[in-house]
Specification:
Layout: E1 7-8, E2 18-19, E3 22-23, E4 25-29, H1 30-43, E5 49-55, E6 63-67, H2 81-93, E7 96-105, H3 114-119, E8 126-131, E9 138-146, E10 149-158, H4 160-163
Length: about 160
């Protein structure tokens, strides 16, 4: 993780919730997670947003794509429509899909808002939230959002250079 910035709410055993018999877990490389946190800190006090793409069907986040928050808001994020179209076409051309959709909350906990839930349009994606409300700590949590149902999942942080 980012030096000097403890992560709260990450990789906590037993934290994952089950939906039926499926246990949801997001496995993410520490370098990608560090870059997401850096993006969130850099854009603070506005919400940061982006995508981590991966090979279609793999559930493996491999390519970070930071995006612009077209809303330029402290309480809301919105992908720029032209940028989103370009990114989704690029993923399609590369046989990739959005494995993670991430954004930050600048003044609240890392939990999906009603707006976040209503706009969650990728049922196969992990929705990663980073709270930057505390300057000396970072709260990171991941969720599945399907049909307006939010299920928190465990975050498993790996080091690809060691685990490869």
């Amino acid at each position: 993780m980012t030096p000097g910035v403890p992560a709260v709410g990450t990789a906590t055993p037993g934290r994952a919730k089950s939906h039926g018999n499926v246990r949801h877990v997001l496995t993410i490389d520490s370098a990608i997670l560090d870059a997401i946190v850096a993006h969130a800190r850099r854009d603070h006090p506005d919400e940061a947003c982006g995508v981590v793409a991966g090979p279609a069907g793999s559930d493996l986040p491999t390519r970070l794509i930071p995006m612009d928050n077209a809303a330029r808001s402290m309480t809301f994020y919105e992908f720029d429509s032209i940028e989103q179209l370009r990114v989704w076409r690029e993923m399609d051309d590369n046989d990739e899909e959005p494995v993670i959709i991430y954004h930050s909350h600048t003044a609240t906990e890392a939990y999906p808002s009603r707006t976040d839930i209503s706009f969650a349009g990728e049922p196969g994606a992990h929705y990663l939230l980073v709270s930057t409300r505390e300057p000396d700590s970072t709260e990171i949590r991941s969720f599945r959002i399907v049909d307006n149902v939010v299920t928190e999942e465990e975050v498993n942080i790996v080091d690809a250079t060691v685990d490869a």
